[in-house]
UniProtKB/TrEMBL annotation:
Pfam annotation, one family: ABC_tran
Alphabetical keyword list: ATP-binding, Nucleotide-binding, Transport
InterPro entries: AAA+_ATPase, ABC_transporter-like_ATP-bd, ABC_transporter-like_CS, P-loop_NTPase
Biological source species: Pseudosulfitobacter pseudonitzschiae
Protein name: Histidinol phosphatase
Length: 255
């Protein structure tokens, strides 16, 4: 699915949180959003998913303005995993993941065997199939994160938006999640803090103070001058001899 952001913005009171952001994400692309704390990444993701009232500019999905689509149309196309997921404490892991099927169900099309297979696959994909009966309230931060990702996978979206999906995960689950997401046959927009992980995206948009200040392939966008001016770090580029990949080592200026 193709997504186009045209001069997207959002303000609260007199404060502009996101301003004049334009880019296109092509079908199948993994598009990363990076930027310092408070630079507007989560707000931009919410705008792209149509979750904020009174946005400015336009978001188009395969050429159709988001505003012309029903909530159900949007939910059949876009799944969002936010940083803080609100879920009833009493639900089981399976219940939460089954919620991902909601946009596809109706009185004439109740939850059935095919939905059960999709839910099982999603639980399997995030390594939570052994905990289906556990209650949400009892889960660790990383387990909750993986269940929310399974819910989004069960939605079978064409566009998956993830807000810092690795932030609660141990290193094994971080890497397996990124590999899982990278191999999905869908368009992905992902906000990330780890710039080494961001190097795995097809393209990156850099946010700073609510504006997009750069957009392009990771190797071009993450140059020493930008890392110093936007992220306020001194970066040394290293090469992994195993596969020739670029790795950054960061230091605070003056160290
Ligand atoms: N509903 C709101 N009302 C007021 N201010 C808001 C609101 N939502 C976001 N902000 C402010 O907008 C700025 C951008 O927030 P946002 O969460 O989009 O940044 P971010 O880049 O995702 O940050 P982080 O990396 O810390 O998660 C922050 O200063 C935040 O306090």
């Amino acid at each position: 699915m193709k997504l186009e952001a045209r001069s997207v913005g959002w303000a609260t009171g007199a404060r502009r949180i996101v301003q004049d952001v334009s880019f296109e994400v092509t079908p199948g692309e993994t598009f990363g959003l990076i930027g310092p704390n408070g630079s507007g990444k989560s707000t931009l993701l919410r705008l792209l998913a149509g979750l904020l009232a009174r946005p400015s500019g336009a978001v188009l999905l395969d050429g159709e303005p988001l505003t012309s689509l029903s909530r159900r149309d949007i939910a059949q196309n876009i799944a969002v995993v936010e940083q803080i997921a609100e879920t009833s404490e009493a639900l089981s892991v399976r219940d939460v993941v089954e919620l991902g099927r909601t946009p596809w169900l109706s009185a004439l099309r109740p939850f059935g065997a095919q939905d059960r297979v999709i839910v099982n696959d999603a639980l399997e994909a995030v390594g939570m199939a052994h905990m289906t009966q556990h209650r949400w309230a009892t889960l660790s931060g990383g387990e909750r994160q993986r269940v929310q990702i399974a819910r989004a996978l069960a939605q079978r979206p064409r566009l998956l938006m993830l807000d810092e999906p690795t932030n609660h995960l141990d290193i094994h689950h971080q890497l397996s999640l990124l590999r899982l997401v990278g191999n999905l046959p869908v368009t992905v927009i992902i906000a990330l803090h780890d710039l080494n992980q961001a190097m795995g995206c097809d393209r990156l948009a850099v946010m700073d103070e609510g504006r997009m200040v750069a957009c392009g392939p990771p190797g071009e966008v993450l140059d020493a001058a930008r890392l110093a001016s936007i992220f306020r770090v001194k970066a040394t580029r290293l090469r992994d001899p195993a596969d020739n990949a670029t790795i950054f080592r960061f230091q605070c200026p003056g160290e």
